[in-house]
UniProtKB/TrEMBL annotation:
InterPro entries: LCMT1 (IPR016651), Ppm1/Ppm2/Tcmp (IPR007213), SAM-dependent_MTases_sf (IPR029063). It comes from Pipistrellus kuhlii (Kuhl's pipistrelle). Residues 1-17 have a biased composition (Polar residues). It catalyses: [phosphatase 2A protein]-C-terminal L-leucine + S-adenosyl-L-methionine = [phosphatase 2A protein]-C-terminal L-leucine methyl ester + S-adenosyl-L-homocysteine. S-adenosyl-L-methionine binds at R71, G96, D169, L170, E196. The keyword ATP-binding does not apply. This is Leucine carboxyl methyltransferase 1.
Amino acid sequence: MATNLRTTTFNSCPSSTETDDEGVQGTCEDASICKRFAVSIGYWDDPYLQHFVRLCKERKAPEINRGYFARVQGISQLIKAFLQKTKCHCQILNLGAGMDTTFWILKDQDLLPDKYFEVDFPLIVTRKVHSIRSRPLLSKPILELHSEDSLQGDGHMLDSKRYAIIGADLRDLPTLEEKLKKCNMNAQLPTLLVTECVLVYMTPEQSANLIRWAASSFETAMFISYEQVNMDDRFGQIMIENLRRRQCDLAGVEPCKSLESQKERFLSNGWETASAMNMMELYSRLPQAEVSRIESLEFLDELELLEQLMTHYCLCWATRGGSKLGLSEVTC
Ligand SMILES: C[S@@+](CC[C@H](N)C(=O)[O-])C[C@H]1O[C@@H](n2cnc3c(N)ncnc32)[C@H](O)[C@@H]1O
């Protein structure tokens, strides 16, 4: 088994002196640094990420880059399928968004929803708001769609006609809801919620509360979640142990046992349909020309490593309402 050769994961960890929440916030930096590295060697285009995160000098392993490629492609396909079904007459809530750049990319593609919301811890949001305000490439697209000359908000949030970023703790649902409503979240609109590597940092009870809150708040909705799966097997246990040794506890690993447990957390918390696919399966379904292009970027000697990593992450998506829109037909 290649398990011991490179025990890489898509998570990062803070130093042992940091508290749990600081550790979780630290994962934002790691995800965006890995994405930035993959972008810098041509895996996909993202002209915005460089304005949020520095380029890491150290090379990332090819299986990590391919993993991020599959993750970004998979999530983007599902988001676009939702936008197509709703003809963009909808809202998107990216929860635990970190330095995600989807808003800017959708704007370039003329695919923006009525409103795009991002939520993360106040500390992360403060950093992101600072980048947005100080770089015209990031603030101009927001201002162009806004009816006023300046953007509302303070260090912890920013609100405009089509984009809002809010500093809030996803475990404190009354405050989260209050802040979203202040930024004109519209519960009547078809709503897409996205959590990319986020739920695993909350206890199963906390993530179930968030999933249930989402189901009870929006009549027509879809939820996309990307995170670990098959964590009960040997490789999964090694991933957990490696992270724990680096003071990073995956508090929410319990629902990450299997594709079934991933779906079940939605079906038992108010969602009507749920689908899940591991990332190896998703990778095999990506357009062949695109896969050949990225596979020619770097030589990967240990295909087993890629397979091990990709079978330990999955995309899960759930829907409720939306039969007229055909939301339950959405797939990767
Ligand atoms: C691994 S990062 C992923 C960031 C982004 N979704 C991506 O994939 O690039 C996890 C993010 O979730 C955020 N997060 C985790 N728990 C949270 C909570 N309880 N409230 C707000 N944000 C949270 C972290 O601060 C971090 O930005």
